[in-house]
Amino acid sequence: MGNPLRDRRTPSELAARGQLIEFSEKIGDFEQLAAIVESDLEALDPDKLPSDWRNATVYGQLAFGFAAAHGGLHPTGLWPAVEGRVAVTVDAVCQRCLEPFQLPLVTELRLVFGGDQAAAVEDAGYEVWEVEQDQFRPMDLVTEALVMAMPLAATHIDNAVCHEPEALEEDSGDRIRPFAALKSQMGKDD
Ligand SMILES: [Zn+2]
User: Fold this and answer.
1) Helix, coil or strand: residue 65
2) Which residues lie closer than 8 Å to 128 by C-beta, 6 or more apart?
3) How many angstroms is it from 28 CA to the middle of ligand 1?
4) What distance in angstroms lies between residue 25's CA and the mean position of ligand 1's atoms?
5) Distance, CA 166 to ligand 1 centroid (Å)?
6) What is the reported pLDDT for 169?
7) Residue 173 has what pLDDT?
8) Could you give the CA distance from residue 46 to residue 44 in angstroms, rounded to a whole number?
9) CA of 93 to the centre of ligand 1 (A)
10) What share of the chain has pLDDT > 90, as a percent?
């Protein structure tokens, strides 16, 4: 039977079968998304790194069908299309206070597949999603949608919990930062 989220298919196949996909999967399985989260978290001191960030659950529903020129999915419409919603709460680093926090991402999809002629249904509220090869994995679509939903600079939404690092001057001089810098130059071996 396969896994509809991971199997490679053409948009037309998915539309013709009216494929519905409901999923909840760990973010660690979405390689590109996990790579972005991981590189963001590299800014943290190791003791602040959330240990189970790879287990954050990506939820979603995708409904494939054909888009009609007047909008909505139909079994006999004109262009392969997908509608749906995907969501995940990722661990991220606040760009203001450099503390870890939980960043909710939610995005709605309303996409039509293909090239120029598909632009005709943009008026009906669809965006065009270019498929580079004939076949694609729906999970790649999910990845791209969530990457697009990521803010350029993530920060705490609630200013009350966001503290800029103002206490640094109060550090007594016995925090010997030059050694930390030297250690990171020498590699991470302890
Ligand atoms: Zn913050």
Assistant:
1) strand
2) 111, 112, 113, 114, 115, 118, 119, 122
3) 25
4) 28
5) 12
6) 46
7) 45
8) 6
9) 8
10) 58
pLDDT at position 137, please? Answer: 95
How many Å lie between the centroid of ligand 1 and the Cα of residue 155? 5
Q: Taking 70 as the threshold, does the pLDDT of residue 119 lie above it?
A: no
Let me know if residue 177 belongs to a domain.
no
Determine the pLDDT at residue 69: 72
**Alpha carbons 45 and 42: distance in angstroms, whole number:** 8
Instruction: State the residue range of the domain holding 134.
Output: 11-165
* Residue 145 tokens, joined: 């949608």
Locate tokens 């760990």: which residue? 26
How many structural domains is the chain composed of? 1
Instruction: Calculate how far, in angstroms, residue 96's C-alpha sits from the geometric centre of ligand 1.
Output: 5
Q: 83 in a domain, yes or no?
A: yes
| Rounded Cα distance, 154 and 96, in Å | 8
Dist CA 120 CA 126 (whole Å): 9
Instruction: Look up the pTM and report it.
Output: 0.79
Give the DSSP H/E element, type plus range, for residue 37: helix 31-41
